[in-house]
Amino acid sequence: MTTRTTAGRLGRWADALLRAFTDRSVVVTVLAVVLAMALGTVLMVLTDADAMASLAYVFGRPGDFFAAAGQTIGSAYAAMFTGAVVDPTAPDAAGFFRPLTETLAWATPLAIAGLGLSISFRAGLFNVGAQGQIIMAAVASSMVGFMLHLPPGIHLVLTLLAGVAAGAIWGGIVGLLKAKTGAHEVILTIMFNQIAYLVLAYLLTLPAFQRPGTNAPMSPALDASASLGPLFGAGTRTTAGIVVAIGMTVLVWWTFQRSTIGFQLAAVGSNPFAARTAGMRPAVVWTMGMALSGAVIGLAGSIHLAGDEHFLKLGIAGSIGSDAIMVALLGRSHPVGVLVGALFFGALRAGGVNMQAYTGLSIDIVLVIQALIVLFLCAPALITKIFGLRRSERRAITPLQKVELSR
Amino acid sequence: MRILLDEVTKTFGDVVANDHISLTINPGEIHCILGENGAGKSTLMNIIYGLHQPDAGRILVDDEPVVFESPRAAMERGIGMVHQHFMLIPVFTVAENVMLGDEPKTSARLLDYAAARRHVVAVSERFGFQLDPDALVSELPVGVQQRVEIVKALARDAQVLIFDEPTAVLTPQETDELIAILRQLSAEGKAIVFISHKLREVRAIADRISVIRHGRVVGEAPLGSTESELAAMMVGRSVSLTITKSPPRRDWRSSTVVSGLTVVGSDGAVAVDDISIAFRGGEITAIAGVEGNGQTEFVEALVGLRPVSSGSVTVDGAEVAGKAVKDILAAGVGFVPEDRKANGIIGSFTIEHNLVLDRLSGGPFTSGIAMHRAAIRENGEAAIAEFDIRAPGPTALAGTLSGGNQQKIVLARELARPLALFIASQPTRGLDVGSIEFVHARIVAERDAGAAVVIVSTELDEVYNLADRIVVMYRGEIVGVVPPETPRDVIGLMMAGIPAAEAVGSAR
């Protein structure tokens, strides 16, 4: 009996896996990645001095060019691999796995923020306000983190919760404004990003936020009791944040698949008119969706602050806000997809740093690859045309296309 | 001009919309194409009009094969189409709409409005319409707008005119006027193609009836055919066109009392003007009227989808006016919206999820925020069986189903709770005959279970079929409440705003 249920469960998982990989959207996603990587490879060759020098006489001695190009590509991908996955030349196990911890460190805030964005996407809201929500969360967390001095444990929890609350409020205001006034969330979140940045810039001029002994716009460091330490020992950057990211993946998945909250978000996101006719309140659901989205994104900001940056500065949010949008789109707003997308982007970033250091190729190539992936994802017709896939009869409208449509 | 369709075939994906269709359209003849929704009538006409290209088969105009790559090409060969939804620009005048796309120019290459105006007057006089070329289209009644469409086609010298469900938006009187116009056009030698699923009209007007079913021509019906013979041919089996129901029970155990209800429409004008009426349990009240006379706003206000400006609505004694939809549904109101695709179902959701859209708290399907998948699945399977929803299973996406099956999902959801008031707006619009029979039977069953039932319908056949009493609405007001025995022409006059007593007088 037990073996039969186990077998049955395995069979169901296998079925689900198979469905996932034959699902057209997954195929398109994979092809978009492949195509972007291919174009990135071309870019590597074009920006490599040796390869370009040999291109000048490619018709005289084509072998030189292809050797140089092959050399460039080979070393670039080798460097990316050793920077993002494992380093076989390392003397010890810690060094061997260090690249993986780099990938995880880059992926942590992207995964959590991407999950947060997928919540708003599910409600049909194209939240581009992750940057602002991260900034406000970092501000709130830093205040708890360096202004209050509390016992370990409690201090960290309160630091993170402050960020969650700030993100929820910053996102929730947008949802409320949309619900009450009909203002478009894309415009609102862009404006709220600006406001958040300017608030941050202003706060950093105040004595309360100024680090003593410097004029640079930076705050004092968080107390150790409010910080996340490295999970895999000194010299690595992965924190317990990655565990939170995995936990959030499960939580968001459950919310989407098993809870009335996810059901209402999807109902209002798919057809607000039918949802309203069935007695749901789109205004409430939009506000709740944006608040939840902001809360999770805020958590990403707080974990980034407490685990990586440790103090407030103008560039505290880095490019997490926009990268997380790409991750959420890459993961098709599915929690597991978002986690995988974040790990992939984290690996690209970690590998890109290594590639720049060892081959002289610019890390910008990695950014171009990331951008190309999203570009292809947003133009699925391009992918289906290039790879000759059959056009599907009914196409789901992605949030980004919805933005295009509403212009 | 004669059009011959020779084995025309058109497929969309796996669906064969037109399967080797052969038809002849003769000048001076009104050719009715009769078929259910989804039988392939519109696809066929869009092929003739150049909106679609056939996958196989030929179109011959006067024995010469033609290929219409666009409606413009079809128009140039003398084919005109009057669409179900008018292709007019409301802020333009009649003359401007008629000239649009084929504008006369002066010698200085400027638009020649005077010529356009003369043209409109000439064409409309020739066919005996009265059309003011300078009237704004938005200010014209629907029936007159339709004449603008006809003049637009005639102005381009159309020899073949295709009418796609032209009476859907007309009052019975306007329909009569349209039929007179069609007769005159055919007497002038024009070929008329009249697409419809309304048996009464087809019988009244046709010189030739071709019946289409599942994309094939099943044959020509003899002109003397009765309505049930036509229906049987259209559906492929014998159908009962009238429902047998017991006399209404009419009690006050479940009642809804509306008093002084005023509702403002989306355009800011008063759409429902001080309406007072009571709905009793065990009785079906059918609200008749030409579309756009406040029926939609009235029922939306009852359900809470539209704010109430003033007045009161009590369901079993409890005031619900101005309450949230959720609370009104909880008070025992069930609602089938008129546009089921937009408001009734979520196409990207599964059947089982669509069935619990309004059951997210307090029921067997949830505890707290957790949803019970097994209960939802069971409910889905039960509803599919009970309502005969034709679908692969409860996890099929609602958007992939036919209109009839989508409507059954909405009905199954709304009728799952005990109801004091059941409102169904255009409950069978766009449905096949089989689904219509089913939906009507369920509506009567709900009446017999004791609910007060309100039906909004622009189809008089449906009104007569279901109603225990008929309420006619015109410009946001109730013109009169009459028994179901009231003759059709009286109701028709009432739909044009003439009070019941007067209407009975003039109908005689």
UniProtKB/TrEMBL annotation, chain A:
It is found in: Cell membrane. Keywords: Cell membrane, Membrane, Transmembrane, Transmembrane helix. The chain crosses the membrane at residues 26-46, 106-125, 132-150, 156-177, 186-209, 238-256, 283-305, 365-387. Its main location: membrane. CDD domains: TM_PBP1_transp_TpRbsC_like. It comes from the Bacteria. It is a multi-pass membrane protein. PANTHER family: ABC TRANSPORTER, PERMEASE PROTEIN, GUANOSINE ABC TRANSPORTER PERMEASE PROTEIN NUPP. This is ABC transporter permease. It comes from Herbiconiux moechotypicola.
UniProtKB/TrEMBL annotation, chain B:
Pfam families: ABC_tran. InterPro entries: AAA+_ATPase, ABC_carbohydrate_import_ATPase, ABC_transporter-like_ATP-bd, ABC_transporter-like_CS, P-loop_NTPase. It comes from the Bacteria. Transmembrane segments: none annotated. Gene3D superfamilies: P-loop containing nucleotide triphosphate hydrolases. The keyword Protease does not apply. Residues 3-239, 252-500 form the ABC transporter domain. GO terms for molecular function: ATP binding. SUPFAM superfamilies: P-loop containing nucleoside triphosphate hydrolases. The keyword Zinc does not apply. PANTHER family: CARBOHYDRATE TRANSPORT ATP-BINDING PROTEIN MG119-RELATED (PTHR43790), GUANOSINE IMPORT ATP-BINDING PROTEIN NUPO (PTHR43790:SF4). This is ABC transporter ATP-binding protein. The lineage of its organism: Bacteria, Bacillati, Actinomycetota, Actinomycetes, Micrococcales.
